[in-house]
Amino acid sequence: MYLENDDLCKRLIDCGENIYAVPNSKIKHLGAKSVDEKYNYEIELSRNWHWVWSKFYYNKKHFGFFSALLNGLPSFVSASIRFIFYSLIINRKKSKIYLNRILGFINALLGRKSSYRPNLNLD
Q: Which of 24, 101, 110, 116 is within CB 3.0–4.6 Å of 49 for a Cys-Cys bond?
């Protein structure tokens, strides 16, 4: 869900291919605009889980397990501290966001497939 562009560019470079930039091109990214706003929090949970999972997966794929672990540990520790903090002050929304970061890291660490899906049945 994340780092696809990085992955594609890395693989092209590894194959000796060129990457070209088109300086006059413009792209407008409307992040999370294809989903009804009532699902914003669920999308935020998904985004946090998948970002950490994807980061670990990308680093493991291209640089090895140890590199992915070293690269991901600071985010894991930070998310763990924030999860504890927000749990203590009873901010459930923030604590769940950081829990999802932790779970994304753990699932990637265990070699599990990207599996988190947002709950879009909130009617």
A: 116
